[in-house]
UniProtKB/TrEMBL annotation:
GO terms for biological process: cellular response to amino acid starvation; GCN2-mediated signaling; negative regulation of protein-containing complex assembly; regulation of translational initiation. It is found in: Cytoplasm. The gene is NDAI0I00450. Keywords: Cytoplasm, Repressor, Stress response, Translation regulation. InterPro entries: Impact (IPR023582), Impact_N (IPR001498), Impact_N_sf (IPR036956), Ribosomal_Su5_D2-typ_SF (IPR020568), RWD_dom (IPR006575), UBQ-conjugating_enzyme/RWD (IPR016135), UPF0029_Impact_CS (IPR020569). This is RWD domain-containing protein. It comes from Naumovozyma dairenensis (strain ATCC 10597 / BCRC 20456 / CBS 421 / NBRC 0211 / NRRL Y-12639). The lineage of its organism: Eukaryota, Fungi, Dikarya, Ascomycota, Saccharomycotina.
Length: 278
């Protein structure tokens, strides 16, 4: 038994443990499986695994089918172009595969961001758009007291928006971050990245204490870039948060430009640059 095949079987066992009812057809001699999309079980995918998966080749999406009896009442299935979805899903499948690593779980996770459907879906060119991304009119500009938001930036389906707030301690920063994450649209974001810089006085010996940290939340190096940004802006007692809703198309280094751009705008709008100018 090859290492590739062993890795594939172990991956399918894991998927079946996480999603016990979704794998409707285990791998057969032709190398095919059939699996439903998590949170969107009316979509069923037929996927083939080449001999050299995962070491060299990605899986191949052969077919998307729809079970009409499982379609929620708020979904107009006629808005979907299955041929386009097959092309889009395969692009995502190719993008999440890295030679030597299994990718089926990552693929299924990304699909939820593409297929998320609200009660009043919007369409462009005949395909349901990813409504897990907030439309500009519905993005909260001040979701909680003390927060200031940037304008959203949308690029190839991904949307970025930043928030900045004044904080006086690390506990304050953690509390405000958790408050912000309670917003229902932020809960649908794929990444909620953060960075903070705090300067306070130690009452015992009247010395200055500095706290600074960041969190990538899965977007590698994003948090540290945000921390670098607020460092060179020379702002203190601030937490900045950037949320990203992924639209199914990987945009490469452009994401860091949008993260920093929205973060800087939120910090300036909140008045930190003015407050910290000498």
């Amino acid at each position: 038994m090859s290492t590739d095949y062993e890795d594939l079987i172990e991956e399918l066992d894991t998927i079946e443990a996480i999603y016990p009812d979704l794998l409707t057809k285990r791998i057969d001699e032709s190398g095919l499986i059939q699996i439903k999309v998590p949170q969107h079980e009316y979509f069923s995918l037929q996927i083939s695994f080449p001999t050299h998966y995962p070491s060299k080749e990605p899986p191949h999406l052969l077919e998307i089918s729809i079970s009409k009896k499982d379609i929620p009442s708020n979904v107009n299935i006629e808005l979907y172009d299955l041929k386009y979805l097959e092309f889009l899903f395969q692009e995502v499948l190719d993008s999440v595969h890295h030679p030597g690593s299994v990718c089926l779980f990552d693929f299924l996770t990304e699909l939820d961001g593409i297929l998320y459907i609200e009660d009043e879906p919007t369409t462009t060119n005949g395909i349901q758009q990813d409504t897990s991304q907030p439309e500009q009119s519905s993005i909260p500009t001040d979701p909680f007291e003390g927060w200031t938001a940037s304008d959203p930036i949308t690029d190839r389906g991904s949307t970025f928006i930043a928030f900045a707030a004044k904080v006086d301690s690390e506990d304050d920063a953690f509390m405000k971050l958790q408050q912000l994450k309670m917003d229902h649209k932020l809960q649908r974001a794929n990444h909620v990245m953060s960075a903070w810089r705090i300067k306070s006085m130690n009452d015992d010996n009247n010395t200055e204490i500095i706290y600074q940290d960041s969190d990538d939340d899965g977007e590698t190096a994003a948090g540290s870039r945000m921390l670098h940004l607020i460092t060179i802006m020379d702002v203190w007692n601030v937490i900045v948060v950037v949320a990203r809703w992924f639209g199914g198309v990987h945009i490469g280094p452009s994401r860091f430009k949008h993260i920093n751009s929205t973060a800087r705008e939120a910090v300036i709008r909140a008045g930190f640059e003015t407050n910290n100018k000498k």
